[in-house]
Amino acid sequence: MPPTPVVALQLSVDGRPVTLWLKLESHNPHGSVKGRTALALWKDVAGRVDARFGIIESTSGNLGLALAALAAAHRIPFTAVVDPRSSTSLVDAVRALDGRVVTVDEPDGAGGYLLSRLAHIERRLAAQPRLVWPDQYANPASPAVHTRETAPELRAQIHEGPVSVLIAVSTGGTLAGFRDYVLAARPHWELVAVDVVGSAALGGASGRRVLSGIGASRPSAFLPGGHRPTVRIAPQEAVSACLWLAGATGIGVGGSSGALIATALRLFRGTPRRTAVACLCPDGADRYLDTVYSAPWRNRQGLVPVDVGRGVEILAVHDPPHHPGARGTGPSADRGTRSADRGTRSADRGAPAPYAHGKEPFR
Known about the structure:
Blueprint: E1 6-13, E2 16-24, H1 34-45, E3 55-58, H2 62-73, E4 78-82, H3 88-96, E5 100-103, H4 114-127, H5 141-157, E6 163-168, H6 173-185, E7 189-196, E8 230-233, H7 235-249, H8 255-270, E9 276-281, H9 295-301, E10 312-318, E11 338-339, H10 340-346
Parallel strand pairs: 2-9, 3-4, 4-5, 6-7, 6-9, 7-8
Antiparallel strand pairs: 1-2, 1-10, 10-11
Helix pairs in contact: 1-2, 1-5, 2-3, 5-6, 7-8, 7-10
């Protein structure tokens, strides 16, 4: 799988120059970091899949789309078990690939639908023992692909100095993979977990959650002891960060990426010596046009805007230097300076463009 691009934002935060790296996993096959996970899971279970029964998986959407594409390529049935928070566009895309979609609309009592989705799968497996569940929540193939591929790829694309690397948490597989890489390779990284308020993924009490793709109703099987440090972000902060970034740079990211960016700005403000943060952005804005980027949806959820861009000025947006094995040819021309408050006001005028001025990095 070719490397996904990294964009470097040169910022001034309360007058201090800092760098925010965004690794855009929306450039993966099927549009998200789950393209990596889906391929790893498929390779793990392919040998025991019965073409008459196929595979089933619980998903908030991204993994379901990637698995649906793999199942279609191998001509086997696939069932995605989703819930009412799943993106309409993702659900439609799964169906377009001949995947079956089951929507579980019974809340699980822990702030979401995950436990109800998993209960549905257990019932299906009991009724059809030949059905295969890849189990993204506990299959070691999930963290392994990020230890083997994603983490070293990011390291090759950013500088080797001290960097805080931010990973959003749902199943915990991506974070566990990065943790294992850091323990083995010892890059000069501070690995920070980012979760949402109301999630029990890394311990603590569960509660109501409105964002898909981040957080969970139960502790991660990959990280039973949790992770330190962990930052928990309120949904209004995550959404406001998405709108701020889109308006200020033209880069559109999903809700979990917004949580990462809100965390990065918090960390820059809270620790003046911190000068570089890298965010693994799981997906793009296209999956959230009817939620995060929809003013009516935000109003229904009671998500009051937060001024995440306070004291932040975007000085430049450019491609970073990187080693010769990575895709691209080095830094590009700066794409201009845009003020944070100007970008926030413009974010609601329409869907965000993929990049500022319509240009893509690494081309």
